[in-house]
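Data card: per-record layout.
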Amino acid sequence: MNMLFVGGTGAVSTASSHETVSRGNNLWLLNRGTRNHRAPAQAHLIKADMEQMTDSDTSAIRSRSWDVVVNWQVFTPAQAIRDIEMFNGIVGHYIFISSTAVYRRPQRGQLITESDEMGNDYWSYGRDKAACEEIFLKAHRGDGFPVTIVRPGHTYADFALPTNIIGLGFGLIDRIINREKVIFHDGGKTLWTLTHSEDFARGLSGLYGNTETQGQSYHITSSESASWNEILMCYQNILNIEINQVDIPSTFIGEHSPRLGPTLLGDKARDMTFDNGNIMSVVPDYKARTGYMDGINRTVEWHFDNPDLIYFNPTIGDEIERLINLYSHASDQRL
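The structure for this 335-residue chain is written out next.
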């Protein structure tokens, strides 16, 4: 198949790029080229930005018929509308990468299904993804736009370490090594699902070109869950360094940090475990093979094997310190 990925070298998508070419597909990657060292050697590279496409860029895309297009970088309704206009009539199967953040408020302890209520009360990212889904489905119902919706959960890679604080990434390892305090939101009690990108890639590849999936939505996640306490303690066990743990309610973080609060209240502070029955009905051999303990061990090993490639935003650490100090002061005031 002739396939186009918009993006294809991110934490979620890189493994899918490699899986796609390993199955004998002809893959083009359209992106700005800043991370193409991660791209498979067999992929054709198109250096362009979907947000600033020139006439020649657009012509290069529209002059070809695509069996499958996967856009990893649609986050807003305007981008969804743009893609429908761009690819309508030239694509056999379009896959929209949505998110499990679309759901409103999952019931504690229950597996989330694709039919559960959408509308994230706290996080605009989830609301925008849900709005994109509705735009794509309207185009499918009205004009036959051949869209399939995929909802990944918290998907990580060897080079993208999973944490409960968005943007912290490999900064978590530095905090543990330096004995700096590590936030356990709500005491680390909420249940969470981590999915390795290689597992996600195998599920996604099974959808390519399947017309029966058009107009439908699919989780592609692990079926394994763990509390955030169990997940964070993996780092302690691997590094053999006791974590300097501080418990802070997610509601406090939401009240005092517009930067970190929405993703906690709208995502990681809720039990998020998923029913994968839909994807298994069309990809019968789908099963996540990488348990979170093995996956985290791989990310930690990658960290120490690739010191020149490690980057994390130091301002996240500043925000964490501000919150910890603020919560400590508030606790002292209550006493």
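Known properties of this structure: The CA atoms of residues 188 and 230 lie 8 Å apart. The chain has two domains: 2-156+194-220, 171-192+225-273+291-334.

See the next section for split statistics.
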